[in-house]
């Protein structure tokens, strides 16, 4: 393990000069208590519960109290909300009696609202202020029956808003939109000089001559770049000990033309048809589950790009 400050510079995360947390990759915490107070007040205050039904008018008035903490953590674009709150909501009821208009007031208290219980409805305690007479009990029962479901539904809206990022939601959405609208420019590939012409597999030549593949068979061609020497790629592909290491399975590979090889605990077997050290590997191989006589021929052309240090491997497989 490298000592602190002596690691490869390519793997050291540098601080940006502008201090930007690009795409919220680093851990960021946003305090949401004031935002929560504003949103809950908007959701809960002034809710009409009854509008004269049974001679009773009932509504919520104000969010009297909100205590606790609320925050949102964002890491790699993932939103992690956290909150532990208690709140008190005021309500009032009006009723017309023989003696005139009578008003009753009370509170609806949520003693514990927390992210750990986000999938559960919170406890809601309904109380009446002042005299607990017949009208007060009637208003309280009406709030329990009609007001409680409304308050719980609005609290669910708050929980959902926190899960979506709270006050950071607009920032997260704007970054998603900007990323889709203006994708990052792809840096051009380094200038390289190919020192050998690509080798066309015999199967590919036959395909062009006949104008089609054999029925039921396909020719696959692909090219990959590796930041290493060409002989390193050759040695890795022909070294059974390295195969055992990176596949965690048994492998046996002959380094001679006409020699046999076995990979992945014998699931793949084959023969080396042509070998040019550091340049070319042609192998005929098959899975043990294939029908008898069915093989695939693989041509690995390895070309060194001297000035850039890139190794280009072109593979053609039938």
UniProtKB/TrEMBL annotation:
Record GO biological process: protein folding
Gene Ontology CC terms, in alphabetical order: cytosol; nucleus
Subcellular location: Nucleus
Family, as annotated: Belongs to the AHA1 family.
Name of this chain's protein: Activator of Hsp90 ATPase AHSA1-like N-terminal domain-containing protein
Activator of Hsp90 ATPase AHSA1-like N-terminal domain segment(s): 29-164
Organism: Aegilops tauschii subsp. strangulata (Goatgrass)
SMART domains per record: Aha1_N
């Amino acid at each position: 393990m490298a000592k602190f400050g002596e690691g490869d510079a390519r793997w050291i995360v540098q601080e940006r000069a502008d201090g930007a947390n690009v795409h919220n990759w680093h851990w960021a915490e946003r305090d949401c208590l004031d935002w929560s107070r504003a949103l809950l007040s908007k959701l809960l205050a002034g809710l009409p519960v009854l509008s004269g039904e049974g001679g009773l008018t009932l509504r919520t008035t104000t969010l009297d109290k909100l205590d606790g903490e609320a925050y949102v953590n964002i890491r790699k674009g993932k939103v992690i909300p956290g909150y532990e709150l208690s709140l008190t909501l005021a309500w009032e009821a009006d009723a017309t009696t023989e003696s005139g208009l009578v008003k009753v007031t009370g509170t609806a208290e949520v003693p514990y609202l927390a992210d750990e219980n986000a999938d559960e409805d919170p406890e809601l305690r309904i109380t009446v202020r002042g005299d607990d007479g017949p009208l007060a009990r009637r208003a309280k029962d009406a709030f329990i029956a009609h007001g409680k479901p409304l308050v719980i539904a609005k609290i669910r809206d708050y929980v959902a808003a926190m899960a979506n990022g709270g006050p950071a939601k607009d920032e997260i959405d704007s970054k998603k939109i900007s990323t889709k609208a203006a994708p990052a420019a792809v840096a051009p590939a380094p200038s390289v000089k190919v020192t050998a012409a690509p080798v066309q597999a015999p199967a590919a030549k036959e395909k062009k001559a006949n104008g089609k593949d054999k029925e039921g068979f396909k020719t696959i061609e692909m090219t990959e770049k590796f930041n290493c020497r060409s002989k390193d790629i050759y040695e890795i592909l022909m070294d059974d000990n390295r195969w055992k290491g990176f596949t965690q399975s048994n492998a046996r590979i002959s380094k001679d033309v006409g020699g046999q090889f076995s990979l992945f605990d014998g699931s793949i077997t084959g023969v080396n048809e042509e070998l040019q050290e550091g340049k070319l590997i042609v192998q005929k191989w098959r899975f043990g589950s294939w029908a008898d006589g069915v093989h695939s021929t693989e041509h690995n052309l390895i070309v060194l790009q001297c000035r850039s240090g890139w190794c280009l491997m072109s593979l053609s497989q039938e």
